[in-house]
DNA sequence: TAGTGGTCTAGACCACGCC
DNA sequence: GCGTGGTCTAGACCACTAC
């Protein structure tokens, strides 16, 4: 419109121009991680648009996961400090020693904790299908939220057929020293095979709440189904990994990586 | 406000109530995948708020990836039909046969295509670090977009040190029958080890454009670095996997899956 | 108390696809 | 032409936090 000292930038709608401009400033370091953005009022003046338009531009960046709003202080460039999540570290040699625990050892020097809730529940369709349960069969759900330095780090929910684990340590809401898989093995259900699925999606409101996720944070949804020698599924573990706190890393050997043609 | 036949729902702000209500209808099947939502005008009447508030509620669902807007027709419940992406399928046995190509074989019955662009470029910091390049060293970039039934399916960009692949088939913008890794191997750079990293994040505007992503679609960002026997990195492959088109699936054997304690 | 972002209203004009 | 969603304006009130 009839602006005066109004900042002129690229093409497209106003909100696109503004978000593109700010995104560029974030990319080139003009706005460094952790830096505070101008206030909505300042941006309103700077670009010569109304506050609603400025907010629309900022919403774009919020939903891209680039900035966060810390009300009523202002908007800040988001800082990422992902932890490494190693699927192969989830394979631990026997005999088990507590020092080998994947969760504890991956993050030495920080302060790991976890909450555990155990319940008997009807399985979701997703779990029932993978455990090959018949209608009416119940499962034991061990729901955990793992924390690092007091911040939620990931969700790890495991499900077992109730018939298999009734009156075992798996049903107690506390850490299992030898690991739930050893308990299953001692019951005659040693797992020799696992199928992993990894989905990438936006979190549900429930996941946002449990993991205290900022808007614009996608998640990795990792479903691991464990089978016995006989092919019986005995355990489904679902891990929810916030995209801003994880890198999933693994190593392969001896064969030629393809990915090419 | 002083509404009349206004739909009353839960707690929170109006936009939260409205988006919660619609999300529930999507979850319980009242609004099935592919179904058309009421128009903004209808929702405005139904909930007794202004159009701006209705749009704020719909924006929440769009950014959760639950609905898409098909202008100027209306909003629709999003349908997901993910393809399976198997990292282990990326290991192919030698001798290579075209029928084994991971991309082709995983999707039989559909119509795969790809575009290839090859350029000599300065590496990004990300690539330079993984290839252990010195300042000024250039790379060959092979950028591909893979399509299935005419729809973009994923991005696969590979980077090679220019010194290694000058005047080889890798520099031609066309399919390499035997695979780029075989070319590298024949040059004396057979890869025996790979390190994989998988990040989960929202796409950049460039990725949105190349993959024609709907808003609210997160991506998996897969970086694979291949090393020779001597530990020299010779190739970085970056695959961008739209969350709405992929399930990453793999299988493990012989060891006990942990994920438990 | 001042200033921040969060929410909501009321109204306007536009581009696009369909009829 | 009509109805759809996309954009933008102008103004209001609120909750929260730092001062």
TrEMBL record, chains A, B:
What SUPFAM superfamilies does UniProt report for this protein, alphabetically? Chorismate lyase-like, Winged helix' DNA-binding domain
Q: Which UniProt keywords apply?
A: DNA-binding, Transcription, Transcription regulation
**What Gene3D superfamilies does the database record attribute to this sequence?**
Chorismate lyase-like, Winged helix-like DNA-binding domain superfamily/Winged helix DNA-binding domain
HTH gntR-type domain sequence ranges = 12-80
Q: Which Pfam families match?
A: GntR, UTRA
Entries under PANTHER family matching the protein: GNTR-FAMILY TRANSCRIPTIONAL REGULATOR, MANNOSYL-D-GLYCERATE TRANSPORT/METABOLISM SYSTEM REPRESSOR MNGR-RELATED
Q: What is this protein called?
A: GntR family transcriptional regulator
